[in-house]
Amino acid sequence: MHRLTPEAFAAARKVPVVVVLDNVRSQHNVGAVFRTADAFCLQGLCLCGITCCPPNSELHKTALGAEQTVDYTYYPDTTDAIRALHEQGYKVYAIELAHNAVTPEQAIENYCNQPAADRQGVALVLGHEVFGVADEVMAMCDSCIELPQYGTKHSLNVSVTAGIVMYAWAQALRKQTDY
Length: 179
Fold this sequence. Notes:
By secondary structure, the protein is of the alpha/beta class. 39% of the residues lie in helices and 18% in strands. The chain has a six-stranded parallel sheet, with helices on both faces.
């Protein structure tokens, strides 16, 4: 099945995508994001505010050990994580329902059309299950991505949303380079 050992995963070249969890309250959602980040060999996670950190038995139920392979950093305040990512050259996208939001495809196309030297990495910010990405965090993001939805509901579970955007970015960046 071409699965990496934890040691091979640690040594593998990572897709330059960091997922920022802004006060995500569900430990199961956090674990699912860890597991998906492992599946796509992403750079890592920023866990912020009330978002739980390993070790955590509830997180482990959905992460299934990915919390031991995926790098993460904890920030008490999400704005500190965004500042640090900007300082490292990351383009930061909020994943949220908002005016002037673009689709994942538009954001990826805009990013990939930049000169390669300008593409340091991507950070995807996902927010609280009820309140979304905090306003002060939204104000710090470079752009906002909204997933088009066509049914009666206009929200998705945060771990489902994370999986969709993580997959889209990982696939696009893998096509651009050798990951």
